[in-house]
Amino acid sequence: SGSAGVDLATAVNTILKTQNVHLIDSTLQGPLGRGLSALLLGRSSLSHHRIFVIPGVIDADATAVIKIIVYTLTPPVFIPANSKIAQLVPFKASVPNAEPLTRGAEGFGSTGPPDVMLAIDIKQEKPEESVIVQHPNGQSSTMTMLIDTGADVTIIP
User: So which residues are the signal peptide here (predicted)?
Assistant: First the structure.
């Protein structure tokens, strides 16, 4: 008694060979029962083992195998099957004016179209794009410009 969460174990052996995000099947499948949703969190001691769990929400109507999203900054890392690397903190959802949706077995925000974000590796190469700039007077010119991922203003010579 007193524990806020229930431990969640991995279903398979996994080797994190890169710093990329990995999805690991857990030993639990939805729905959680009693109309409960849950926060999926990493166990508090996990970061000492160089493994990080990306938090998520498990909806009450999810029916798929619950997946644990993990990454490491120092590969390779081996995670044996039945390792309790995450925990579920259950809660009763009370969202006002929520639309009735069934998530089913899709998981990961399957109630709408996916959001796709631009991601460019700029370690070695600077990302450039050919753009056409049109002046209000109708004159236009084509330029090769650096894609700046953090600028609020672009200065055009």
Answer: none
Q: What CATH number belongs to 6-91?
A: 2.70.40.10
Q: 78: which residues sit within 8 A by CB, 6+ positions away?
A: 13, 14, 15, 16
For residue 48, report the phi and psi dihedrals to the nearest 5 degrees.
-65, -20
pLDDT band, very low/low/confident/very high, at 152 (cuts 50, 70, 90)? low
Residue 3 corresponds to which tokens in the numbers above? 């524990």
For the chain, the domains span 6-91
Mean pLDDT along residues 21-40: 94
Just list the catalytic residues. 148
Ramachandran category for residue 103: left, alpha or beta (phi over 0 → left; psi -120 to 50 → alpha): alpha
Q: For 113, which DSSP code?
A: P
pLDDT in tens, 80-133: 999 999 999 999 988 776 666 665 566 665 555 556 565 655 555 667 778 888
